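Hey, quick one: can you model this chain's 3D structure?
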Amino acid sequence: MTQASTEVQIALLIHGQALLQREIEENKREADADLQRVIAKAGADIKEANDKIAALEDERNRALKWGVMTLGTAVIGMAYWIFDKVIGGHIR
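Sure thing. Here's the predicted structure for all 92 residues.
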């Protein structure tokens, strides 16, 4: 090999290395952008799930309150009915 041939090969290798380095950097930027999109989507999905959980908890609490009030009303009504029967002389 001649000196010029070796220098040309070295120049080509350096150029190829620079191209590969640029491609690696570009791939890294694309991967970072993809990661940010995935993180943003996951955050939105988590917020949506948390909102649904909060709505379900609120609905559950309202149902429990309604159930307790209904049961309490029934118990008070039953107690009044029994008291009325005992005081009214129907039960001896």
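One thing worth noting: The mean pLDDT is 92.
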